[in-house]
Amino acid sequence: MIDLQNISYSYPGSRTAALRGVSFQLAPGEKIALMGANGSGKTTLVRCINRLLKPSGTGSVDGYALDREEDLWEIRRRVGMVFQNPDNQIVATTVVREIAFGLENLGLGQAVMKERVESALEKFHLQSLRETSPHLLSGGERQRLACASVWVMDPRYLILDEPTSLLDPQGREEIMVFIDQARHESNAGVLIVTQYPEEALDADRLLIMHAGRLIMDDLPAHVFSHERKLKSMGLGLPVEVELDRLLGSTM
Amino acid sequence: MKIVGENLSYTYRSPYAPDHRALDRLSFVVRPGRILGIVGPSGSGKTTLIQHFNGLLRPGSGRLRVGPVDLTDPRADINWLRRRVGLVFQFPEFQLFEETVYKDVIFGPRNLGVSGEDLEARAASALEWVGLDLQKIGNHSPFHLSGGEKRRVALACILAMQPQCLILDEPTVGLDRYAAQRVEKLVFQYHRNGKTVIFISHDMDLVARLAQDIMVLHKGRLLQYGSRTDIFLDETVMKKASLRLPRTVQYMRKLRARGYAVPLNIFTLEKARRIVRGLNPVSRG
Ligand SMILES: Nc1ncnc2c1ncn2[C@@H]1O[C@H](COP(=O)(O)OP(=O)(O)OP(=O)(O)O)[C@@H](O)[C@H]1O
Ligand SMILES: [Mg+2]
């Protein structure tokens, strides 16, 4: 389980806190969606989970403490991250090396490694781009690459910061399938940040951030019943939910 | 500004990869003052096409005219074009490079010769359009903003140049709903002022709300070009380009399947709401 208790964070030199006393838990197999206006603290929270930032408060991943230097390796290997801007995560010179990069530190045999990399290329339709430099990829291709690099590591938790924003409908569908497979086959816990309310509908819980605070943590249907509150925070409802409500019955 | 393509083709050449024909003999006319949405699967050539419109890329073969400028002519006045055609990229954060948000936003207009108070006024109004306050964030470093905030600033940089033709690559990706709605208002404002707006998006709800005309690209070819009703109700084209129906249209289809006599070409939530509210017991039966 990922367990964060009373996490706060201020960026150096900034007068306002980006996170104020955030607590939440993510269990294996669970899918949580996280929504909030631009600048509300979503990405900051995500960065705290694998300690790219050092927040105050306490937290742990499967019992490994966020603030223990010795635990950091275990935490990073358990938590796979896909960032909002996929560029920030690219380290290697070709697609195939990028995917192999994380695996190289896991001490797997060459044959196993090769097999995993090949299946990642296939799964995310990157075979024809294997020797391409990641910087020459289109936005959607970079997002697929970021997901492939995380998938090969077989993480216990997937943290995805707007992973489908640049994908066409088919690519988006594929990522959603990938997330569901990770949950059902590997019992991975998933946290997905999104600006599309429709993507939150099938989550087990929906979290809403506002000005650095977690102000709602409930079933998506319950959260979406607070229409006014959401709209005042710059967020919207799924189209179907809004029209169903008007129709007075669920379609 | 009128844009005319005739058999426009473009091929990416690289010593490391086989040639890739990204645009394949496109012929089209974008009428001045229209709002055009460009859609199609990833890799279909959308970004390559719009990069031609302000001269970032030059036609490989065929012809392209943007306003009075013939891009096929090696002596074409590209500077003239860049001052009038504002292009906001898919990763607009790469357009930011100054120490402060203010300096970034005034960079373009200053190059156009704007100075003094006018400069500040332009920056303030451009930022306001994207829902940001110059007083509040003018002195911030653009690199210390959230993802969505960066995109909004990058958009303001282009708006501050007051282009005749505005071209946006995935304009609302990563924006919260409030900011996305401001961008939509902005597009309509440009349209009312007679300017041309062209945008690329995978979000069919956005395309449905904004675009008057839609151009569908598929593997570098122009699959179809028409009004939004023509495109969205053309099942063959929608299927071939793997496009999703706008959610309002999907909802109308569900209503029809339940026996309600409703129109299908409903592209905004407001209209959909009106239809649903107006369903009387008779049409409900
Ligand atoms: N590197 C940084 N230095 C200083 N302040 C930052 C930095 N990154 C973000 N901030 C600020 O911290 C706050 C929270 O930002 P964060 O990136 O977490 O927001 P977000 O919810 O992910 O927004 P978005 O939807 O735009 O991605 C914002 O006010 C932002 O301006
Ligand atoms: Mg973010």
Explain what you see.
The complex is a heterodimer of chains A (251) and B (285). Chain A is an alpha/beta fold and 251 residues long. Chain A has one domain (2-237): P-loop containing nucleotide triphosphate hydrolases (Rossmann fold, 3-Layer(aba) Sandwich). Chain A has nine helices and ten strands. Chain A has helices at 42-49, 72-78, 95-103, 110-123, 139-151, 169-186, 220-224, 227-232, 239-247; strands at residues 2-9, 19-26, 31-36, 56-61, 64-65, 79-82, 157-161, 189-193, 205-210, 213-218. In chain A, strand 4 (56-61) and strand 5 (64-65) form a beta hairpin. Chain A is globular and about 55 Å long. Chain B is of the alpha/beta class and 285 residues long. Chain B has 13 helices and ten strands. A six-stranded mixed beta sheet of chain B has the order 6-7-8-3-9-10, with helices on both faces. In chain B, strands 2-1-4-5 form a four-stranded antiparallel beta sheet, with helices on one face. Chain B starts with a strand and ends with a helix. The model of chain B has no long low-confidence stretch (mean pLDDT 92). The A-B interface holds A 11, 14, 36-39, 43, 84-85, 87, 131-132, 138-141, 162, 165-172, 195, 198, 231, 234-236, 238-240, 242-243, 246-247, 251 and B 16-17, 40-43, 47, 90-91, 93, 144-149, 152, 170, 173-180, 202, 204-205, 242-244, 247-248, 251, 254-255, 258, 269, 272-273, 276-277, 279. Adenosine-5'-triphosphate (ATP) sits between chains A (11, 14, 18, 36, 38-44, 84) and B (144-149).
